[in-house]
Amino acid sequence: MSDSEFEHVTTEAAVAIYASATGAFSAVLNEIRELSKKKPDATMSSSKVKVINKVLDDLLVILKDEPEGKYLERLEDADLPQVSDALLTMVQYNPALDAFKKRYLRYVKIGYDRKHLWITAERVAEWEADDEDASEEEDDL
After folding, report:
1. Roughly how many angstroms between the first and final C-alpha of the chain, as a whole number?
2. Residue-number span of the structural domain to which 129 is assigned
3. Cβ distance 123 to 16 under 8 Å?
4. pTM (2 decimals)?
5. Considering just the CA atoms, what is the radius of gyration of the chain in Å?
6. Would you state the pLDDT for residue 135?
């Protein structure tokens, strides 16, 4: 398999960030949703904004250069946002995360198996090396 077989290729580092940050993002998003139901106009504390921005900053590393990334931003920490504004900012990450997963997690045939695998530059390089080794073995026969 080669890089040219895949339209979109990411990195192992980006996949690691995705894996570690999406759980934390879901948790804080759920908390903000619940808070928004109770007190949508309440001003968020600076400590909550810092915690949320840590997660958003991680996600921005992998999403900012994606097509959906142009709509994403971190929470304003100079002027503390209202809960409803924070929720509006945060929910924009969901479609970007969904698009990231759809773009880079593919159903790939390897030998006789099919697996869902992240398409990363590192994995593609391994596949290319395996293809070269197999090709050399065939030439030796």
Report:
1. 22
2. 105-140
3. no
4. 0.85
5. 20
6. 59
